[in-house]
């Protein structure tokens, strides 16, 4: 095991706060697995006066084992390092922990271990990744993450013992809040705890700014993660909810205000591509970072289990199912083409997953492939035209038509990769304005109806809507890669006028064997044209 920037662990962050004898009675608890290489704190198990289940209590002592690492900096994130070769990084959150299960705030404390459910989730992640090959493994030093990584890595080579442990991958430092139940935090800390919930990027505690420090720490982690020879291009990172969000956001250049807008569920997988670039004069330029998928979890995203707040309105954005052209890597643009037989299966699988939601409207762009996909969804969820008609209720939105690619249309992606959009293509600015307007119309209608709405469209439109929802610009269209049948779930916990939260992006696990693998044989074949439009 390689441990970077780290010498030893000594737990000193939490102390037991024992209940008064007059209010509780000590009980025996079964022995549980404990994290190795650390001094275990004395703990007291108590039973409530109402005869309820036993619990343990902890209290912050004012110092912890991470102070010597000196990575708590309230400074702008470091830039992503320059690269000469492609890197694909899969990021996984640990399985459910004992503190997840009871609603206790963990932060960077190291007292929780995986529950039985968490072990099972890690096994599902292992199965999801069983056909993927990784060259190197990075883990957090915390037990819940390290155990998840051990389950996922299984019998891969090199052996698990040769993993690299990065203290920078530990969970967000929450100081006094660590060890508290969430309800207890509200009662004890009042406005301070509400600030953590409502404005986390500005929140400060114990003389620190946890989220801003986390952004810097995640950017520091990228310096180590990407520091591999080009022969080690497929990398696996296993860490935690908040730090995974920070890794993704700093890779994309998103500020700390995007905290909690890129959800990370237990044992879910996110995949980022880092593609080397050069300036016109040939000198190295910052790599282009593309989200291949975000939060592909063991639980289907429509069920909205795990992290995130409840939302009255959700938008399911679906890329149309496969066509012969998309299967062959052809840029279709405005060319109208129907789904092929694989696409029909993809549409059926997507419809089956979305049927678990509360779908009240299905929208699509005006093309055969989107209309066919939308029709399959409307039929499965039981949406039909008024008057008892058997005609599926699919609403076409003209403004959501695909980008016109001019002379590129009909050509294979690899034949034009690395070249600029042709002069006769639709201007990005015009495309952006058109999609932003149409998206606003769809979102307003979805909010009016409540529940869930489905929007079936094209990869370029899909990416443009994501950029709009997350506060990005048309210059960021290449940030998102969307496969045929890929599903993005946007949630609006504060209503449609509030910030959008991405529960998942390009979710494809429901497609089974037709899903794109996490690792690919030749990273140079990964599309680099504005997210494979």
In short:
The protein is 27% helix and 17% strand. With 533 residues, it is of the alpha/beta class. The protein has two domains: 232 residues, Phosphoglycerate mutase-like (Rossmann fold, 3-Layer(aba) Sandwich), CATH 3.40.50.1240; 217 residues, Rossmann fold (3-Layer(aba) Sandwich), CATH 3.40.50.1240.
Report on the structure:
The chain is α/β, with parallel strands linked by helices. The chain has two domains: 2-10 and 71-293, 3-Layer(aba) Sandwich (Rossmann fold); 309-525, Rossmann fold (3-Layer(aba) Sandwich), CATH 3.40.50.1240. It has 13 helices and 18 strands. The strands form four sheets. A seven-stranded mixed sheet has the order 1-9-8-10-7-11-12. Strands 15-14-16-13-17-18 form a six-stranded mixed sheet, sandwiched between helices. A three-stranded antiparallel sheet has the order 3-4-5, with no helix packed on it. It is globular and about 65 Å long. The relative contact order is 0.12. Residues 6-13, 15-55 and 521-533 have low confidence and may be disordered.
Topology:
Elements: E1 2-3, E2 14-16, E3 25-26, E4 45-47, E5 54-56, E6 58-60, E7 87-93, H1 98-102, H2 116-128, E8 136-139, H3 143-153, E9 164-165, H4 182-189, H5 191-198, H6 210-225, E10 234-239, H7 241-252, E11 269-278, E12 284-296, E13 313-319, H8 324-327, H9 341-354, E14 359-364, H10 368-381, E15 395-396, H11 413-416, H12 428-449, E16 451-457, H13 459-469, E17 487-492, E18 501-507
Parallel strand pairs: 1-9, 7-10, 8-9, 8-10, 13-16, 14-15, 14-16
Antiparallel strand pairs: 2-6, 3-4, 4-5, 7-11, 11-12, 13-17, 17-18
Helix pairs in contact: 2-3, 4-5, 6-7, 9-10, 12-13
């Amino acid at each position: 095991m390689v441990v970077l920037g780290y010498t030893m662990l000594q737990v000193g962050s939490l102390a037991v706060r024992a209940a008064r004898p007059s209010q509780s009675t000590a009980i025996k608890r079964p022995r549980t697995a404990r994290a190795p290489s650390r001094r275990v704190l004395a703990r007291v198990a108590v039973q409530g006066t109402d005869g309820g289940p036993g619990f343990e209590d902890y209290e912050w002592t004012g110092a912890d084992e991470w102070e010597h690492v000196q990575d708590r900096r309230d400074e702008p994130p470091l830039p992503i390092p320059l690269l000469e070769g492609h890197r694909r990084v899969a990021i996984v959150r640990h399985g459910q922990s004992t503190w997840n299960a009871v609603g206790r705030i963990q932060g960077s404390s190291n007292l929780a271990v995986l529950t039985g459910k968490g072990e099972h989730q890690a096994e599902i992640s292992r199965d999801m990744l069983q056909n993927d090959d990784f060259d190197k493994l990075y883990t957090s030093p915390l037990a819940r993450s390290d155990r998840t990584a051990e389950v996922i890595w299984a019998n891969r080579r090199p052996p698990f013992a040769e993993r690299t442990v990065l203290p920078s991958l530990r969970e967000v430092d929450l100081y006094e809040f660590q060890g508290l139940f969430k309800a207890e935090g509200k009662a004890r800390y009042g406005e301070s705890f509400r600030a953590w919930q409502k404005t986390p990027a500005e929140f400060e505690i114990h003389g620190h700014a946890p989220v801003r420090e986390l952004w810097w720490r995640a950017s520091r982690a990228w310096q180590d993660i990407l520091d591999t020879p080009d022969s080690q291009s497929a990398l696996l990172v296993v860490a935690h909810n908040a730090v995974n969000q920070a890794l993704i956001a700093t890779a994309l250049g998103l500020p700390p205000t995007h905290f909690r807008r890129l959800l990370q569920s237990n044992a879910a997988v996110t995949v980022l591509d880092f593609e080397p670039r050069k300036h016109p004069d040939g000198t190295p330029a910052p790599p282009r970072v593309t989200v291949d998928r975000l939060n592909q979890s063991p639980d289907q995203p429509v069920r909205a289990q795990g992290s995130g707040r409840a939302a009255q309105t959700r938008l399911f954005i679906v890329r149309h199912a496969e066509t012969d052209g998309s299967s062959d890597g052809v840029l279709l643009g405005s060319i109208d083409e129907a789904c092929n037989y694989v696409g029909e299966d993809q549409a059926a699988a997507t419809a089956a997953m979305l049927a678990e939601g509360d779908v009240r409207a299905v929208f699509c762009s005006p093309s055969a492939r989107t209309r066919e996909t939308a029709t399959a969804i409307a039929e499965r969820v039981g949406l039909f035209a008024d008057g008892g008609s058997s005609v599926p209720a699919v609403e076409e939105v003209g403004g959501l038509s695909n980008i016109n690619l001019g002379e590129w249309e009909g050509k294979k992606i690899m034949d034009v990769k690395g070249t600029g959009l042709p002069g006769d293509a639709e201007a990005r600015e015009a495309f952006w304005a058109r999609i932003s307007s149409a998206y606003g119309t769809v979102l307003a209608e979805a909010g009016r109806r409540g529940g869930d709405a489905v929007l079936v469209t094209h990869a370029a439109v899909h990416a443009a809507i994501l950029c709009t929802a997350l506060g990005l610009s048309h210059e960021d269209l290449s940030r998102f890669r969307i496969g045929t049948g890929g599903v993005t779930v946007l949630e609006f916990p504060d209503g449609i006028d509030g910030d959008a939260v991405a529960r998942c992006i390009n979710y494809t696990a429901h497609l089974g064997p037709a899903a794109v693998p996490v690792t690919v044989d030749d990273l140079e074949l990964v599309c680099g044209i504005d997210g494979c439009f």
